[in-house]
Amino acid sequence: MQKQPLRPTSLPLALPGPSSSQYDELMDNMSDDEKYNILLQSRASSLVQSLGKKGRGMGGSSRSTSEAFTPLYKLVEEMTDKDMRITLRSFAALIDAASLSRDLNVIQECLLLARRNGVSRAFARSVGALNPPPPLRAASDRYDLSPVPSDARTSELAAGVAALTVVGGALSVEAVGPLLHADTTAASVVLGGAAVMGVWDLTQRKGQELTLALAGINRLFLRDPERDAHVQAATFLSAYLLGLPCFCFSPNVMEAVRMTAQVPAFAETLSSTAGLNRLLVYLLAPVAVEEANYAQLMASDARQARALLQVYMGRGEARGQEGREEEVLLPWAYEEAKRLLRSHSALLERLKQRMESGGATVGDCVALLEGAVASA
C-alpha cells in the first residue's frame, strides 16, 4: 500500500505437547470457542509463514493461493455454523494472512466470512452514509463544493532541481575556487543574478517561482513519518468503511481497476456509477486529510481520482453524463471524503498513532476499527 508499515502476526500461544499434564489441564479448562479460536490463529500463522517463504503473495497463481486458504475458510464456516464467535485476535490473524496473499478475492472472502460470523461490523459501514452527487448539469459552486487541490509535483521537482543545480553549483565554485586558485567571477555573477531574480519574483509575482522551487526541494529531501502515517490511515479507514477490499494497498488507479476486474462479488457494483463514486471518495481521502493538516501535498496524489474517472469514461462506463464528470463528481467526492474523515476523526487519530508506531499489522489495524465500532 505498497508502503506498508505492517508485519505478519505470529501465533501468540505455544501449547505444551499432548503428553503434558499441564496441556490436559489447560484443554479441560478451555471452552470450545477458545479452542477453535486458537486453532484458527495457529492455521493463519502457519499460512503467513508459508506465504512469506514461498513468495506466493508476490506473483504466485491466484488459484494456488485460494486453495491454500480453503482450510481457513472451512474452519470459519464451521465456527459460524456452531454459533462460535471469532475473537478480534483471531480475526486479525486471518486478515494478516489474507493481506499477505495480495489476492483481492482472498481478502474479500475472508471479510465476507467474518461478517457472517458477526465479528466484522465496520467493513462497508459507511456506504449508505454517502450523500448522492449533485446533477452533472449543475455547477459545483451551487452546492458549496471545494475544488480538488491541484498537484504540480512535476513542475515543483523541475524547479527544485534547477534551483539546486544553479545556486548549489555556484556556491560550490565560490567555496572551492579560492583553494584551487580558480576564477570565481562567473559564479558570483550567477549568484547575483539569482538574487535579483528572487527579489523580482517576490515583488512582482508574490514569490510564485520561489514557492515552486521550495516545494520541489521539500519533495526531494523532506521525510515526515507522521504525515505518511496520517495519509495512510485516512486511506485505510475510508476504504474499509466504504467496503473496498483494497484497503491495505496504495490508493491508485491500478488497484481500483484491478479490484473491479478481479473481485466477482464486487465487480458489478464497483463498475456501476455508485461504485465509481465510492472509489473516487476513497482515492481523495488521503488528499483531504493531507490538505487539511499540512501545507503541501506530498504523500497523497490528487491526480489518481481524475485518472480513474478518465479510465471509466474511456471504457464507456460514465457516458451520457454531458462531459461534466470532472467538474462535478470530483469536487463532490472530495467533499464526501472530508465529511467521512471528520465524522470518524477520533478513530482516524487512533489509527494514525497505531500505524506511526511501526509495529502494527494489517490485522491489528482492522481489529482496531472493528473493536471501536463494536464498543460504540
Automatic annotation (TrEMBL):
Renumbered to this chain, the Low complexity biased-composition regions fall at 8-21
Q: Where is this region: Disordered?
A: 1-21
The biological processes this protein is annotated with in GO are: proteolysis
A Gene Ontology molecular function term for this protein is:
ATP binding
Q: What's the protein called, per UniProt?
A: Uncharacterized protein
